[in-house]
Amino acid sequence: MTKTLRLSTLALGAGLLAGCGASGGFIRDAVSTQQLEYRMDVSGVRYVKPANGSASTGSVLCIIPLSGHLYQEAMQELYLSAELAPNQVIMNLREDYSIRSYLGFYCTRQLTVSGDVFELTPSSAAGRPVTK
Question: Per the confidence metrics, is the pTM higher than 0.70?
């Protein structure tokens, strides 16, 4: 009987600490309903670096958020990470998120927005260097 009680207590304690959650993500550019079409003669496109920004928040009882503006904070961090120079853009935007619940008493949410920085060389500037 005491063995079963100990095992049950251990299982309950492990369950309280472990929590459960879900994660997922998608490519933002592929599902965006806002389509902008720019026409510019480009003589070259060069990959510069990856950039990302993330933000996280918690919520009590999984319904009372402790902070807001999760997307705004993640996007601000993305642009700080990108350090865009003239003629540089962020493309291939991706969004990853995870949610973790601790028995419904407390939940955490984390959002990561990432993309790739590319440098575009306009064809009118093909013979001269890009000023920064």
Answer: no
